[in-house]
Every structure is written in structure tokens, then in C-alpha cells.
Amino acid sequence: MAHIQEITSLLHNPSDADLALITKAHDFALHAHEGHVRNSGEPYFNHLFATAKNIAELGMNATTIAAGFLHDTIEDLHITGEQIEKEFGGEIRFLVEGVTKLGSIKYKGTSRYNESLRKLFVAMSQDIRVLIIKLCDRLHNMQTLQYVPQEKQLRIATETLEIYAPIAQRLGIKKLQRDLEDLSFTYVYPHEYKEVQKLLKLKKIEQEEHLDKFQRALKKELAKNNITQFRIDHRVKGLYSLYKKLKRYEMNIENIYDISALRIIVPDVSDCYKILGIIHSIWRPLPDRIKDYIASPKLSGYKSLHTTIFTGDGGIIEVQIRTEEMHKEAEYGIASHISYKDGFKKKTSNPNLLWVHKILPGRRHTTETKPLQTGDVPHWIQQLVEYQKEAGEEFLDDIKNDFFQERIFVFTPKGDVIDLPIGSSVIDFAYSIHSDIGNHISGAKVNGKFVAIYTVLQNGDRVEIETKKSAKPSLKWIQYCKTTMAKKHIRIAQEKN
Ligand code: MN
Q1: pLDDT band at 17, cuts 50/70/90?
Q2: In the prediction, which pLDDT does 60 show?
Q3: Banded model confidence at residue 342, pLDDT cuts 50, 70, 90
Q4: The whole model's pTM is what?
Q5: Which residue numbers are catalytic?
Q6: pLDDT of 392-432, one tens digit each?
Q7: From the CA of 63, how far away is ligand 1's center (Å)?
Q8: Could you give all domains of the chain from N- to C-terminal order, each with its CATH number?
Q9: Which residues surround ligand 1, an ion (CB under 5 A)?
Q10: Mean of the per-residue pLDDT values of the chain
């Protein structure tokens, strides 16, 4: 049987109170779910243990881990919220009830599905930890999907691939994104999965030999230069992410250089550059593949040095060099910010995560849900919540189109970052700021120059909208819109006229 130390050993400097809380939640769940079994025939408690462990692996604190152990107690066992509060306090009750609410759905069929998504988005806007517990719960359900009746497997896997994984991505939790994608991939696209796996297998054996040799040589060189404070992490690209990339490269794996990458993680920024210098003085880099995302972070906030080098024995390897902090942010995104015991100590460079600072955990200890405050959550989460007001069969297609496509980042004149699906126009931008702005556009500037409002925006554009009270949208605009949000507002404005 799994031992609690598997979880507590993942905590960074836990206090006695942390350990006591986790142990108490562990024991409570073990006792409460006694005799309760899963589809696989194993004890139900295994699911709670796995969920709590997934949460701990993201670096979350004891409170969230404890809530992970308890997340199915209210729904499945008729234990009350009051009982949870009496034993564990109001904050844990709030989290457990938050996850429970996601599970109780009144509707059937498509509306049931839509309803569950709407609830998910509302929960996410109220306390992001509820969503993180839900994602970790889903991860274990995906890990055990083979025991679920076959007719349900495809639905659950599709939902995971289309909704849960993109949410993890937008929250910057790469680790969860990768796991959720790869676990769903085999159910949703079984043929493609096998094909990619076969391609990767052949490539991996050859690649691993180069990696091993390079890694040994590199360690020697670093030692020669008195660099001893580093760790090396070897990551292989997720199968689904490789599949998406292969599609862009005519399924030719030889054109993809970042199938596996070597990560060197160091204490300071200056070490990053030192190591890059050492590597380039010995191994020849591929031109055009040296990227300094530390001096110029990606618009998503991502920081790291990248270089791709010839190993000298016919291999080509991508090397990523970063500090521990950059690494945590790149892998765990939002989770790396809420893992701190006393709120958010550090600033994030990721514009998508700035809002996290405003919804500190611990601030919402009550079981009442407060109304959403503008500015408390990112624009896109507020918009998701807005979508729930418009029921309808196309709801799912709308959100997939508007929120979970590949994004570009553009700036308002004040420097605020707005992200939009690729292919969005000035009109989409205006409507994403506010429907009143969209409805009264009279002109626009992109990067200081006047442009037609149909102009398609590019990553990094600075967009300025001019409005006039008398200006009105035209139905013709719809063909130049990417987001369903903009299209809807244009139609509504027409009906009013
Ligand atoms: Mn569960």
C-alpha cells in the first residue's frame, strides 16, 4: 500500500502542522471511504491518494493537498460541509465544496456537458486551487481510464484533450498539460498515437546515445571551469505535442530538433550565460537556433537560454539553460505561484499570470461565494464566465474557438496584454476589450500607424482603437472576425437597429 511519505517527501520544508494536517486528511479519507471500490476493483482510497500526490507534485501546500484527499467525501459519502469545517476548518471546506459543486450536474446530454464546463469556469474564477484539484483528479481518472466502460472512454478523453489540457496550458502548468494530452491522445487518435510512438521509438534510441555522451562530456567541461552548482534534467517532448509539430513538418521527424532537450538548471542568471559560453566554445551551434529568452522573454513570459548544437558524432541536441525559478515557472506556471505558504512572494514575468497576485489563497475562507470583481481574474476567465450566460448547443464550439486555440499576445496603448486566438483582427481586439468599444469603432492604429479595422493582428502588436458615438458595426465585419464573441455582439447590435 502507498505510504504517506510518498507525499510528504514532496513538500519543501514542511512544518509539523503541515504534516499533521496531511496525515489527518489521509486518515479521514481512508476511514470514510472504507469498503468503497473503484471500477478497477481497487480501493477507492487509491484515487484520493493519487490525486493528493498529483497535487503535491505541483508543489502545492498542505491545505490544498489535504483538500485533495477529501475531494470526494461530500459527494460520495454524504459527509457534510459542516463536518469538514469542524475537522479541517473553513478554507478546506471551501475547497472541497468547490470541487463537489463541479460534480453535481442536473442536466443530460450536451447540456449536461456544457453545464459541467460552465461550473468549471465559474469555480476557476473564484479560487484557482479548486481547478487545480479538479485537474489532478482528472489526471488520475485518465491514468485509470482503461477500467471505465468503453463507451464512456472516448467522451472523457475528448473532453480532457479539448478542455482540461488547454486549461492547464493557459495556466502555464506544462507538466499537467503534457500528461493530460498524452493520456488522452491514445483514446482520441489511436492510429496517430501508434504512428508517432513508432517514429519516436526509432529516433529515441539513436538520440539517447548522443545525449549520454554529450552529458558526460559537458559535466567534465563544467567541472574544469569550476561550475559545480547545477542539475541536468532530460526531457522528452510529449507525444501529443510531437504529433502536432509533426503535422506541421509533413510527418518528417528528422526536421524536429527538440524531441528531446537537455536542461541545465543553475542558481543564477550569470551562470546561465557562463554555461552557454562554455558550450559554444566546444560544440558548434546551429545558426538561428540560439535564443536568449532571458534578455528577451517570450511574450508568454517564458525565460531560458536555448541553443541547438552539433554533438560531433552526428547528433544534434537542444540545450536549455535556466535558473531554478525560471524552471519552476516554465513547468508549473500558476501552481508555482500559489505554492507559497504565505501567499505570493515573488513577481511573475508571465503577463498571463499577473492576476494571480490578486486572488491570494487564504483570502477566501468563507463558504459563501463572493461576486466576481473586475480585475480580480484575467480577462479571458471573466469572458469564460460571461459565456455561461448564453446557453446553447454551440457553447462548446464557441469556447474552443475563442479560448483554446493557439494565441497571440497584443498590447493596449497602456501596455496591458490581451491575448486572442491566432488570426484575430482589430475588430476582435476591440470587442475583447468591451462590447461598447467594438460597437463604436471608427478607426484603429497598429504600432502607431492607421490601419483598416479588418487588419489581422500579429504577436506583439500595439493596438489603439478610436471610437465615435455615431459609429455602428456592420454585418460585413463578421467575415473578418475570428472570435464568436465579436460575431455575436455584431449580430446583436444589428438586431437592435
Ligand atoms: Mn475524484
Answers
A1: very high
A2: 87
A3: very low
A4: 0.75
A5: 75-76
A6: 556 666 766 666 667 787 888 887 777 788 899 999 999 98
A7: 17
A8: 5-186 (1.10.3210.10), 190-329 (3.30.460.10), 405-496 (3.10.20.30)
A9: 72, 137
A10: 83
C-alpha of residue 157 to centroid of ligand 1, in Å: 16
Please give the distance, rounded to the nearest whole angstrom, from the Cα atom of residue 70 to the centre of ligand 1.
Answer: 9
Give tens-digit pLDDT for 169-178.
878 888 899 9
Distance 450 CA to ligand 1 centre (A): 53
User: Which pLDDT band holds residue 112 (cuts at 50, 70, 90)?
Assistant: low
> 320 and 346 in contact (C-beta within 8 Å)?
no
Cell of 241: 505535442
Distance 221 CA to ligand 1 centre (A): 48
Give the residue-averaged pLDDT of 290-300.
Answer: 86
CB-count exposure of residue 160 (10 Å: 0-12, 13-18, 19+): buried
* 90 compared with 119, residue with greater pLDDT: 90
Q: Which of 45, 59, 32 shows the shortest CA–CA distance to 4?
A: 45
Ligand 1: centre distance to CA 495 (Å): 45
What number is the average pLDDT over the span 89-117?
71
Q: How many whole angstroms from 137 Cα to the centroid of ligand 1?
A: 5
* Res. 308: pLDDT tops 90: yes
Centre of ligand 1 to C-alpha 99, Å, is 9
